[in-house]
UniProtKB/TrEMBL annotation, chain A:
<dbReference type="InterPro" id="IPR002878">
    <property type="entry name" value="ChsH2_C"/>
</dbReference>
<dbReference type="InterPro" id="IPR029069">
    <property type="entry name" value="HotDog_dom_sf"/>
</dbReference>
<dbReference type="InterPro" id="IPR039375">
    <property type="entry name" value="NodN-like"/>
</dbReference>
<dbReference type="InterPro" id="IPR012340">
    <property type="entry name" value="NA-bd_OB-fold"/>
</dbReference>
<feature type="domain" description="ChsH2 C-terminal OB-fold">
    <location>
        <begin position="54"/>
        <end position="119"/>
    </location>
</feature>
<feature type="domain" description="MaoC-like">
    <location>
        <begin position="185"/>
        <end position="287"/>
    </location>
</feature>
<dbReference type="InterPro" id="IPR052513">
    <property type="entry name" value="Thioester_dehydratase-like"/>
</dbReference>
<dbReference type="Pfam" id="PF12172">
    <property type="entry name" value="zf-ChsH2"/>
</dbReference>
<dbReference type="Pfam" id="PF01575">
    <property type="entry name" value="MaoC_dehydratas"/>
</dbReference>
TrEMBL record, chain B:
<feature type="domain" description="Thiolase C-terminal">
    <location>
        <begin position="258"/>
        <end position="401"/>
    </location>
</feature>
<dbReference type="GO" id="GO:0003988">
    <property type="term" value="F:acetyl-CoA C-acyltransferase activity"/>
</dbReference>
<dbReference type="Pfam" id="PF22691">
    <property type="entry name" value="Thiolase_C_1"/>
</dbReference>
<dbReference type="InterPro" id="IPR002155">
    <property type="entry name" value="Thiolase"/>
</dbReference>
<dbReference type="InterPro" id="IPR016039">
    <property type="entry name" value="Thiolase-like"/>
</dbReference>
<protein>
    <submittedName>
        <fullName>Transporter</fullName>
    </submittedName>
</protein>
<dbReference type="InterPro" id="IPR055140">
    <property type="entry name" value="Thiolase_C_2"/>
</dbReference>
């Protein structure tokens, strides 16, 4: 996975902190009067001493406060949705900005004990994340651990399936519902996938295919997938249905009444989909069934990135 | 020590808040000139009388250096006092007291404070990348060596929403937190905006239920508790109180001020809930000789509902931790027993960037002058005005009194 997010650029003053994290240790400064200093500085902000030494600390502390961001703070963080942003108070006193991993946001409590998690994935730097002390989350996140949280859409969750005959129009009409199905498995929208679609479709506009320029000039902070790609990927997002239509000779995609892409899908994030039957209409040539299919960026369950009111004609 | 009320707000002008997409584009120099000329006409003063100018440095389109000289030259005035103020949403309050202090010191006679916040047009071949970068990262520095670039951005700690949400969550864990009480702020201000034809949300009333059902942005903050950025801008004129016989409206004396800057990021504040508006307001009240209970109105910087709550507590309108009860027990509309943000506040009037807070100063001035139209208060001689920049980083307070 490519790291498309802002990375720390250590300064001569702060370098020992980042070197410590690479070694999976938390090192912060302490002045000769015993005051702990964070973030790294050239003086003690309490007593102005210039005599600072780097000390290894446990990194453990308490959750000073947190928030669950339901809209990505920057588009390139969409793959982490929802973001659990937190401030941790080291046992030594200073505060640090971080994110919480390996915890259900609903169970977090201000004041609870947390321990450090060293995130090696960015490659050039190790980031310091936190998890509740009692969490089973590993103390290190590396590329291998990352692979586990980025599944491909292969397996469909097993659900009990009812068979519904298309000629039983009342039974088909009974499928119309305001509530959506369960989610499909998740699929990662990689830059490679976007590039392949650009080559295939001929749409190689830079906001899709040029990460460097997009980082500088695009309002999305990086490349985004083509809306049409997301719509095409529906074929790979197998949405679990608790029914199966039977008794027809032919089934065709009749087109869409509505196709919208309300939310950008940045490269590198995961998507999943769900659907509902929106309407059923008996026409001369058969039955027109309209499915509302919504694709969402994982973690943004309140806002779809693609909406497709797709009409299937059963004949 | 302090101000003695020798300087007064006498006139102002502001652009009606508009969506960026439909607002006119103007160079910032043109906006400063346009707003200044209109504010002077409002006051009844001549351009040649201006000898002080305060403008914002950040986000000034045509230059990042020598901005007051360039703007003064464009206006056609010679300046005895020229300054930039870089205090975010606290800038307007900060400009007002600086102008008053300069006048009381005898440095100058008439000061214009102007903040242009409409977009400037881009040159056909202009490189957009710097602009895109600035607009994406807002008030966050992404430059090498800035602590936030190094220690916040890699974790996605970014922009104001989550910063204020972190403060709100800490408040919730420490004191009583009642989303319905906080929603009353947004609802009352929307009511006020429905009596202000200039407000961006004029004619769109909301209920507590609407606020509580609105989209969650960063827990516990919902979208109707958060300002909408708009294009706009404002200017105000401050002059010597003894020269005000020639002016058109009642002089509004600046009798108290305070300012406190605590940290850039609330993360590094020792106590996230002890906000800078506390020391700033205490100084302002002490200087004025009045107490919070003496005020006839409060125009409180409201980028978020939680900002208002913390200001009410730390400025001394209610004891710490009892803000929710205060909100439940008061009617915050212009018809109520605690008139607050009578123009609709930034939540419902609209937040025009750094000029957002100036709408609060201007509303206080117009209320004291008796020019607030349908929403005019019966008691309108004393006003408390606050400004907030960053994430509770830099705050200021003014006490204004009608002459």
């Amino acid at each position: 996975m490519t790291w498309n997010k802002p990375l720390p650029q250590p300064t001569p003053t702060s370098a020992p902190y980042w070197e410590g994290l690479k070694a999976h240790e938390v090192r912060i400064q302490q002045c000769d009067q015993g005051h702990w200093v964070f973030f790294p500085r050239i003086h003690c902000p309490v007593c102005a001493s210039r005599e600072l030494a780097w000390r290894k600390i446990s990194g453990e502390g308490t959750l000073y406060t947190f928030t669950v961001a339901r809209i990505p703070t920057m588009p390139e963080f969409t793959d982490e949705m929802p973001q659990i942003l937190a401030v941790v108070k080291f046992d030594e006193g200073p505060h640090i900005n971080t994110t919480i991993v390996g915890a259900d946001p609903a169970t977090l409590k201000v004041g609870q004990r947390v321990r450090p998690v060293f995130d090696d994935r960015p490659g050039t730097a190790t980031l310091l994340r936190y998890t509740p002390v009692e969490s089973a989350h590993p103390g290190v996140i590396d590329d291998a651990a990352d692979a586990k949280v980025m599944p491909a859409a292969e397996t469909v969750p097993a659900v009990a399936v009812r068979k519904i005959d298309i000629k039983n129009i009342d039974a088909v009409r009974a499928l119309v519902s305001d509530s959506f199905s369960a989610w499909s498995p998740e699929l990662a929208v990689t830059q490679e996938l976007i590039n392949e679609f650009a080559a295939l479709s001929g749409d190689d506009y830079w906001i899709h295919t040029d990460p460097e320029r997009s980082r500088k000039e695009s309002p999305f902070g990086g490349t985004i997938a083509h809306g049409m790609l997301i719509q095409v990927l529906l074929g790979r997002l197998r949405i679990p249905q608790d029914y199966e239509i039977t008794g027809f000779n032919n089934m065709v995609n009749y087109g869409s009444d509505r196709l919208r892409f309300p939310v950008p899908v940045p490269a590198g994030c995961r998507i999943h989909a769900r659907s509902r039957v929106k309407s059923v209409e008996q026409v001369k040539s058969g039955v027109k069934l309209m499915m509302e299919i919504n694709v969402h960026v994982v973690g943004q369950d309140d806002r779809p990135c693609a909406i497709n009111d797709m009409i299937i004609m059963y004949m | 020590m302090g101000l003695s009320g020798q300087a007064a707000l006498v006139g102002a002008a502001q652009y009606r808040p508009e969506k960026y997409s439909t607002a006119p584009q103007m160079f910032h120099l043109e906006q400063v000139a346009d707003l200044t000329v209109r504010a002077l006409a409002d006051a009844g003063l001549e351009l040649a009388e201006v000898d002080g100018l305060i403008v914002p440095a950040p986000q000034f389109h045509e230059a990042t250096m020598f901005v007051p000289a360039m703007a003064g030259e464009y206006l056609g005035v010679a300046l005895n006092y020229a300054e930039v103020v870089d205090l975010g949403g606290a800038s307007s309050v900060a400009m007002a007291w600086r102008a008053a202090a300069a006048i009381e010191m005898g440095m100058c006679n008439t000061v214009v404070c102007a903040i242009p916040q409409r977009m400037a047009p881009f040159a056909p071949d202009e490189d957009m990348s710097e602009f895109m970068r600035a607009s994406r990262y807002g008030g966050h520095s992404t430059r090498y060596g800035a602590p936030e670039a190094e220690l916040d951005l890699p974790y996605g700690h970014m922009a104001q929403n989550t910063g204020y949400a972190l403060i709100a969550q800490r408040y919730a864990a420490t004191y009583d937190y009642d989303p319905a009480a906080l929603a009353r702020i947004a609802v009352a201000q929307r009511f006020n905006a429905c009596h202000n034809p200039e407000a961006i949300f004029h004619g769109q009333p909301i209920t507590v239920e609407d606020v509580l059902a609105s989209r969650m942005v960063a827990e516990p903050l919902r979208v109707l508790e958060i300002v909408m950025p708009v294009a706009g801008g404002g200017a105000m004129v401050i002059t010597r109180a003894d020269r005000t016989r020639s002016i058109r409206h009642r002089a509004v004396k600046i009798i108290g001020c305070g300012e406190h800057v605590q940290s850039k990021s609330p993360t590094y504040a020792q106590d996230m809930l002890a906000t800078p508006i506390g020391p700033a307001s205490r100084r302002a009240f002490e200087m004025s000789g009045f107490k919070p209970a003496d005020m006839h109105m409060a125009q409180i910087y409201d980028c978020y509902t939680i900002t208002v709550l913390l200001t009410l507590e730390d400025a001394g309108f209610c004891p710490k931790g009892e803000g929710m009860r205060f909100l439940r027990e008061h009617d915050l509309t212009f018809k109520g027993n605690f008139p607050m943000n009578t123009h609709g506040g930034q939540l419902s009037f609209g937040q025009a960037g750094l000029a957002g807070g100036m709408s609060q100063v201007i509303e206080a001035m117009q209320q004291i002058q008796g020019r607030a139209g349908e929403r005019q208060l019966a008691r309108h001689d004393l006003a408390y005005v606050s400004g907030t920049g960053g994430v509770m980083s830099e705050q200021g307070a003014l006490i204004l009194q009608g002459a």
